[in-house]
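Board notes, transcribed. Complex of a protein with flavin-adenine dinucleotide.
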Amino acid sequence: MSGSMRAEVTERTVRADLVVVGAGIAGLTAALWAARDGLRVVVLNKGPRWNASSREQPTSTFYAQGGVAVVMPGVQGPEGPDSVDRHLADTIAAGAGLTDPTASGLILADGWASVSALIGWGADFDRDADGALLRTREGGHTRRRIIHAGGDATGAAIQRALHEAVRHPGHDARDAPPIRFLDDTIATAVLLDDGRAVGVACLRAGRAVSVLAPTVLLATGGTGHLYAATTNPAGSTGDGIALALRAGAQVADLEFIQFHPTMLYTESARGRRTLISEAVRGEGGRLVDVEGRPVTEGVHPMGDLAPRDVVADAVQTAIELTGHPCVYLDVSGVVDFEDRFPTVTAGVRAAGLDPAGGRIPVVPGAHYLCGGVVTDESARTAVDGLLAAGEVARTGLHGANRLASNSLLEGLVMGRRAAAVAVGRRGLPMPEAGGRRFEQPVPILERGLLQDMMTRQVALRRSASGLAAAADTIAGAPRRMAESVRDVEDAALTLTASAVVAAAAARTESRGAHVRTDFPLTGDVAESRVFRIVDGELREARPAAVPG
Ligand code: FAD
Ligand code: SIN
């Protein structure tokens, strides 16, 4: 059995049928479905134990605002009938040539069943007086199909419902074994036996723990803290990308880091910043520059509700043309702004600003990783027994630019499919030994330095010279043992950054969320770039077949 990092005999071994790394929408959905089928599930969460009253949470899921994009059968909106095919067409249009239509069609078609299960678990989406689900619009959607909860507190409602479902699983799961949480526990390596994933090595309060299971699911979320400022919570440090790469899995489309057009601007801010939901524009908010000129005029027929890459680019252009550090979201036309958007209102107020003034200062902010660990339509990676779901995975749904509010839906659908795979693998023979981790120094860049470099050279606009400078900085990262949680995260950020930079340098065109100032045109042929580690080196690879 092999792994990476630290040389110490494991002090404690836990056994399960499925180990899930991550307690957001993808991880908890998988855990709930797997437990329902009788699997012993262990959920690892590097953040603190769920506490419904805490305002800081370790998952992006908790912070989701706009909602879940889903087509409800038989519902017709003001723009005309909706359908999964129309949702797919919008997803493909936003994805700038790299959306996989087959995989995406299958995911979107499963959307309503997955959302219905979530509602069954207690997620309380907003409804009108007749009890019908309210729906809003966001960028790139030609229909109002985004359901939401608590106005703009959708993620908090979902996270709460999932945790409640874990505590009170309901009738059909009465005999199911309880889901076991290991909170404040960081996964440091996927344990392998003869190329098969057999568990996860972890650090818990400074001590080594191994969780052995025939199926390992990575549901670790995103990579926002590659950058100095982001909409993501503190734990979005690309751990799952690093865990997968070191285990031998493939990653793809990592150059497509989506910058949300409207992150709250506050001078010199670092770390997690408040998002101003795209739904604000769906309800009448308008983007203007410092002189009051419309930011997206003449840029795209959908204007402020164009796909996210288009709007983020228009915002950046306006900032560069005016020399002013931000643009403004004019919310004076939004009916009952504070009631409809309580999360945004609280975030703006917390920054010492008053949304009642009508203009909220915004900039593009690092928000979402469109690519990730390559999986098939069942969440399987190229490593036997290793699955990935949620933001960490690359299913082909998001292409070069994710359609707004498609990721919560993807987490629900793919979490359920991952559980189904784990159920099929129950009872596979497991090695008796409980995991020994091998000492191996890894490159670790100091976090602030890495974030400043990525913000300068690998953000919304990239060029060969900037990417080469970034690659040099990463190549010079000192190698040392990852001794602490912070080290493990910084090592993950360093490896993930190197993969993002390699992918961005290899893509000599502009497409979707990836803009090259030296290659402004989009090529005729759209191809994903796949990378994996071979002989200790990150290399571009052709996609390998995933195990059937
Ligand atoms: P997360 O919810 O991020 O959970 C990751 C989990 O992994 C956490 O529990 C974390 O502790 C754990 N973890 C990570 N690394 C390790 C490790 N090494 N060891 C142990 N545990 C680990 N999408 C939409 O569809 N609609 C929206 O309205 C929307 N709004 C958003 C608003 C904001 C502010 C943000 C940041 C994102 C938004 N998104 C939205 C995107 C969406 O919320 C995320 O893509 C999605 O929630 C990711 O879910 P996940 O389960 O993959 O990961
Ligand atoms: C938002 O509310 O604008 C975020 C939606 C998303 O990222 O999907």
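The pocket of succinic acid (ligand 2) is lined by residues 65-66, 277-279, 368, 404-405, 407 (CB under 6 Å). The radius of gyration is 22 Å.
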